[in-house]
Design brief:
This protein is mainly alpha-helical. It has 9 helices and 7 strands. The protein has 2 domains: 160 residues, no CATH class; 53 residues, no CATH class. The longest helix has 17 residues. It is globular. The relative contact order is 0.16.
Length: 242
Amino acid sequence: MSDEKHYVIVGAEVDQTERWLLPDGTIADQPAPGAIPLNVEFIGRLMVELSIRGKAQLSRQELDRAQEQVRAALMVQDFSALDGSAGLSDAERAAILERTTVRIEFESRSRDACGPDRNSRILVVPSDKTLEITQEMLERQGKAEGFRPPLSYELDKSLMLASLKSEILAMVREFAGKAPPDKWTPELQAALETHMAEAVAERSVFKDGGGLPADDVKNEIMTSPMRAFHRSVGIYATNMCR
């Protein structure tokens, strides 16, 4: 495989899970009753649990097990197409993950009754061939309004849109107080506000092939701030160490 392949290793998106943690602690390639999907949500939830417990409360065996579970929750995101090179095959992706290791590090905070806390922060610098291609692409693009992080997912867009609903409706209501056009009526204003509320709601639901709300993990996360939080923690963590 060429050294010029451009890819990043991140947590698997919630609807792209390829491995599961079985009730007996083993990791499998197929789901089973009681199995836990290994993906960014799992990574985030694990990080929260480890942060609460702290390094001192974790045995070496538990740490090794957690690191292997995180490794199984990763995926290779191929950026080859951005520079015109051939994409990675499934076999190449699998080979990359097989030779990937994960090391969990704990930051520390020591509290001192006689002075400020002592904090240790860890800045993880990504390996080569992970950031240059995006920077070069943005340099070619030049100035533009707004910025969508290159490693965000469609679910992030929907979560943000839903969270901005009240702000969007507030902007629509401002229209009524800014010299609206002739023949503008309170009824039209109310209709516009209703339309915007419905449009945001419509774009905040993932649909199946028949256009109905899908019975899937994305819609579950859309209505669960806790699960969305865990997923975000997992994304930030694995993007940071890419």
